[in-house]
Write a structure and sequence with these properties.
Elements (H helix, E strand, L loop, with lengths): L1 E5 L5 H11 L3 E7 H4 L4 H11 L1 E7 L10 H14 L4 E5 L11 H4 L3 E5 L2 H10 L3 H17 L2 E4 L2 H11 L6 E3 L6 H6 L13 E5 L9 H9 L3 H4 L2 E7 L5 H12 L5 E6 L3 H10 L2 E3 L9 H8 L4 E3 L14 E2 L5 H12 L7 H9 L4 H14 L2
Parallel strand pairs: 1-2, 1-4, 2-3, 4-5, 5-6, 6-7, 8-9, 8-11, 9-10, 11-12, 12-13
Helix pairs in contact: 6-7, 10-15
Keywords: Glycosyltransferase, Transferase
Enzyme class: transferase
GO molecular function: glycosyltransferase activity
């Protein structure tokens, strides 16, 4: 089998899905121009060598205003598919990537789409509300979704959103969760923490530093902790590869202008480092405004970390009654809950939460399901 991915090589989730298949199949990658611009030629060669995925190049984003400019990129896709004898064209993240599915007849291969969350829950539906041109763009998305041969979603809420877009033919929608290497997260011993945090208690905000993840809510709530309690903890953020630097600067300003907060911003962490951070955290807080099925939450649960999630409609078979969830995006509510957890005034059911997710989040199981979908179309 030969698979061509349209994916983000900076996304750890995209990489993990692709590398599962590159171990047994021939895999190629094209990326949006902005995503690949962060990579040098040597970076691309190293990626290809380590992951057995050949990077063919970049592609401009689909044009809705100057539609005729899309034809050059369509020809490039057609050439890749013909030259490399591609069997499956798999698109990760719907907005804007799925719009290339409008040219499916020219591409002449099965088109797969994987939604991740924000794309179908927030971004695409907004087009419907932004005037005549927005409605036209929304129509293009609906058409592209309908032309895709198979759609996988990482949460049941995404499935509901995709059903609204499709308006029918729901058999093509499948639940394939992002998944984690469960055994590794459970069995792997914790590494020593970075010296910055050695022997320190801390509250961890593990999500990417992007506006969609709403770190300001957690920072404001942390600032409202009793002075005597707040002074015992560091607030830890992670400046990953995809961080929004302007947003990061705004968060630092918020921290520095709040009541005294000891904080630490770590550079991008690998899986072993994240394991150590989760295992040693006094509390993990996640405050996204929109979300799919957060792998970071699953990883925290598998490490028995105390966890607070935002008031979003997560899949209950993963995040049920044993996981603490806010009722609203209110910093007073969050601060009160943080304080009770740090003071151990409420009972946490971390083992029960861990048991609930373990049987449903194996990446190996989820990718095996996806492989069986591939084989239906070749």
């Amino acid at each position: 089998m030969k698979i061509l991915f349209l994916a983000d090589p900076n996304s750890i989730h995209d990489i993990k899905w692709m590398t599962f298949f590159s171990k047994k199949f021939t895999c190629y990658l094209i990326a949006r121009r902005g995503h690949l611009a962060k990579w040098t030629n040597s970076d691309q060669k190293e990626f290809a060598t380590q992951n057995k995925i050949e990077i063919l190049g970049d592609i401009e984003d689909f044009r809705t205003a100057r539609f005729w400019k899309n034809f050059r990129n369509v020809r490039r896709l057609m050439e890749y598919i013909e030259i490399y004898q591609i069997d499956i064209f798999h698109i990760f993240f719907a907005e804007p990537n799925i719009l290339w599915s409008n040219f499916k007849k020219r591409l002449n291969v099965p088109v797969f789409l994987t939604t991740r969350g924000t794309d179908v829950l927030k971004t695409i539906p907004k087009f419907k509300e932004t005037g005549v041109f927005g409605k036209l763009v929304y129509t293009l998305y609906r058409r592209a979704f309908r032309k895709a041969d198979c759609i996988t979603c990482t949460s049941t809420k995404q499935i509901s959103a995709v059903k609204k877009l499709l308006g029918g033919n729901f058999d093509k929608i499948n639940l394939i969760r992002t998944g984690v290497d469960v055994d590794k997260w459970i069995q792997q011993p914790s590494l020593p923490l970075t010296t910055v945090l050695a022997d320190k208690k801390y509250v961890l905000l593990p999500r990417s530093i992007l506006p969609i993840y709403g770190h300001e809510l957690a920072i404001t709530a942390f600032a409202k902790l009793d002075d005597s309690l707040r002074s015992q903890y560091y607030l830890v953020l992670i400046d990953g590869k995809n961080s929004d630097k302007q947003y990061l600067q705004a968060l630092e300003t918020l921290i520095k202008t709040s009541p005294k907060i000891d904080y630490c911003i770590l550079p991008a962490c690998n899986q072993d480092e994240m394991h150590a951070l989760y295992t040693n955290a006094s509390l993990v807080v996640m405050t996204p405004k929109s979300d799919g099925t957060p792998v970071s939450a699953i990883e925290a649960i598998l490490c028995n970390a105390p966890l607070i999630l935002p008031p979003l409609d997560y899949d209950r078979d993963l995040f049920g009654d044993d996981v603490l969830k806010l009722k609203s995006r209110d910093d007073n509510e969050l601060s009160d809950l943080m304080q009770k957890i740090l003071k151990k005034e409420i009972e946490l059911h971390t083992e029960e939460a861990k048991t609930q997710v373990m049987s449903r989040v194996s990446r190996n199981d989820e990718m095996t399901k996806l492989e069986s979908l591939y084989t239906r179309f070749i």
